[in-house]
Amino acid sequence: MQSKLLTIILILSFVITSCNSNSVFDSYKTVPNKWDKDSIISFKIKPPDSINAYNLFVTLRNDNNYKYSNLFLIVGINFPNGKVIKDTLEYQMAEPSGEFLGTGFSDIKENKLWYKENVIFSETGEYIVNIQHAMRENGKVNGVKELEGIIDIGFRIENAPTN
């Protein structure tokens, strides 16, 4: 009986690690209650090398309290030499029917959103990724002050496929 249990545990461990073998960095930060428009979620990253190419993703978890079909984010990368690159990005979060995109069997959906592909971290040192929401309601000038329904914000780096 113990050998069967050990075999099952080993198989599950192999499956879990093989699914994430492409990941170089994967971290989440929890959003307390509502995501304030002035709140910036930051990730400090030390890339493994300055030669290989990587794909970058914003990852997030949302629940049914999220009331929009899209999401606008401002994502910035601060390079070790002081250079900053900022992008304003829009992601689709729901089907036209209102059903949320993403994976998950419960009310919480997880989304892996493309940010940049084939990035080479040519500078040595620490990079900082900053993520801030930039949501606005149609016809309103001011942004949404407190965004409900976003539970966790993450950042993921994967090895880019080689041809």
From TrEMBL:
Domain of life: Bacteria
UniProt entry tagged with the keyword ATP-binding: no
Protein keywords: Lipoprotein, Signal
Listed InterPro entries: Motility-assoc_lipoprot_GldH
Cleavable signal peptide: 1-21
Keyword Membrane: no
Protein name in UniProt: Gliding motility lipoprotein GldH
Organism of provenance: Gilvirhabdus luticola
